[in-house]
Amino acid sequence: MRQPSAPARWPVKLRGDYATAGQDYRVEQHPERYSDAEHALWARLLERQRALLPAHAAPQFIAGVEALQLDARIPSFERASDRLEARTGWRIVGVPGLIPERDFFAHLAERRFPVTVWLRRPEEIDYLAEPDLFHDFFGHVPLLFEPSFADFMQLYGQAGERARSLGGLAMLARLYWYGVEFGLIETAQGLRCYGAGILSSHLETRHALHSPLPHRLRFDLERVLRSEYLIDDLQRSYFVLRSFEDLMRAAVDTDFAPIYARWRDQQGIAAGELVPGDIPLSAPGA
Ligand code: HBI
Ligand code: FE
What we know:
This protein is α/β, with parallel strands linked by helices. The chain contains 12 helices and 6 strands.
């Protein structure tokens, strides 16, 4: 039997309690154990991000937040899962924090989204180096109410094992980064954010839409698979979907194997660099 432990080769020391995790890294949430101070911090984070949504978030993300009926208490994963499962068949499972890729993919492939059970400290309200409950829950769960995106996430989990056998894991991780954590989408109101890493961050949300610095490029799957990323700074490029159906279709229709074979051993495209074929989209004004 494998003893669950924090994933090795992560750049920061992980703070979660991995000793109590099951073989698939699941832990109980125990919503009754959060302190009043933790609920208060959740409420602050929620109010601050919720205020940005009308002008910054994709309508599907906003609809997901509404469906979750969040309030000033840290949500129960069980209750949220019941709402989510009724809509797209996904459930939330508690985890101690980052888990090994293999286990993460296995949950996604079964339509289970791993959410970290602990909340950041008050002094980390603007930034922390590993995902916490606010990032995982507020950032990721709302879009799982969107049917195309929900299907894409399952497909992503299924693609993991195949990528491993083809030496494509590092490339596939870039699709998660740019397509799930830091994605933008075109809407009738202009560019909007849907990525969890954007919408769980006050700074990144404003940067993604209003800063003159980053590129906002038309989403292209092969381009994304070749693109390096920054894990500890505001992004220098974002990729823009036309629709969530497009993301799903690109993932279904593309044979990843020849793309891995073509680029696996090459240097990736540096963060913020432009290459021939890129289609920059105009920013919606500062
Ligand atoms: N574990 N809990 C958790 N959350 C993640 O987002 C996550 C992970 N393990 C691995 C991982 N992400 C990355 O390898 C992605 O590229 C899949
Ligand atoms: Fe995330």
